[in-house]
Amino acid sequence: MEKLHIPVLLSRVLAGLNPKPGEFYLDLTAGFGGHARSILDVTQQFKGSVLIDRDEFATEYLKREFPSTLQIMNTDFYSAVLQLLQCGMTFDMILADFGVSSPQLDRTERGFSYQSDGPLDMRMDTRQKLTADDIVNHYGERELADILVTFGEEPKGRAKMLAREIVHHRPVKSTKELADIIISKSRYSRTHPAARVFQAIRIVVNGELDEIEKTLPLLPDLLNKDGRLAIITFHSLEDRLVKDYLKEASSFGEESKLEVINKKPIVADNEELIINPRARSAKLRLAKKRN
User: Fold this and answer.
1) Angle separating helix axes 208-215 and 77-87, nearest 10 degrees
2) CATH architecture, domain defined by 10-103+209-289
3) Does pTM surpass 0.90?
4) CB neighbours (10 Å) of residue 218?
């Protein structure tokens, strides 16, 4: 298989999910199959396993690379989970990697990256109407500032200033133009000054947090006895949702749906960061179905 994407925390995911031959696997955000390939190489259980991604480019790639007996769904993972529950399907392992894939970042025409010049798009599903251009060029200044605070965790004063600058420079025609506006009003920092702004806009374009929040409570019902759940997040907003849900789902003693395996998130070690710097913000949380 062509390596389009280096899966983050792969060895930790394999250790946490502990796949065994014949087990059924569900990947909510399969991307380009990095995690899935390693897990399915162990299980060899293609029929009854499911890979989901709402990016058509990703699912077409998966269909070419995996056996036809493997079910591949081109939709958002919340809709897919509802369908799987209606069909009565269950799995021994579930993985959700909530990050943007490397091919999405690297393909300039997708508009995800602040380090290249592309259209203001940022849609994970190119069939949807809302794009980053709609937000950047048509949302009001106050609404833009609220987005930067809520989904980019920018300080209120800076968010208001950046929103004002964006509105002043309209029409903003590309990711580079947007990044340059932000850079011109920023001091040096360890992270790129546009990172939070791009994160905030991307989250709104794709409704990411709402989808996660709706999906998490449904996952225990998709797990078999002794089923394992692994979730990878890339920023504090995602991680807080996952942490709070797992804490609640495991807080009812014998009546709890899940048992949390690691109280503190697992992060990449230095060896992995040398190979894959994009893993630096990844956090892995693991849980197990209570019987």
Assistant:
1) 20
2) 3-Layer(aba) Sandwich (3.40)
3) yes
4) 14
